[in-house]
Design brief:
Elements (H helix, E strand, L loop, with lengths): L15 H11 L4 H45 L1
């Protein structure tokens, strides 16, 4: 017997005006898909930001290492 994939349910509180706008612009049966798509996009932005910060940190550590190496060579 194959297990069915059940999506977790997430309860979110938003203002009534925002919900009415969502229903009007997105449609009653499409709100969940819209919210999921928006969350995926936002998390994607955060992942890109983390990767950018990680690359900058690596670059900075490499610069410090080069600087320390030059300083050690100058002392010789």
């Amino acid at each position: 017997m194959e297990k069915s994939k059940v999506k977790p349910i997430l309860g979110v509180s938003i203002s009534p005006l925002l919900y009415q706008r969502l229903k009007k612009e997105i449609g009653d049966r499409k709100v969940s898909a819209f919210v999921e798509k928006a969350i995926v996009a936002e998390l994607g932005k955060k992942d890109k930001e983390k990767q950018k910060l990680k690359q900058q940190l690596i670059k900075d550590y490499q610069a410090v290492a080069r600087s320390q190496k030059r300083k050690a060579e100058d002392e010789i």
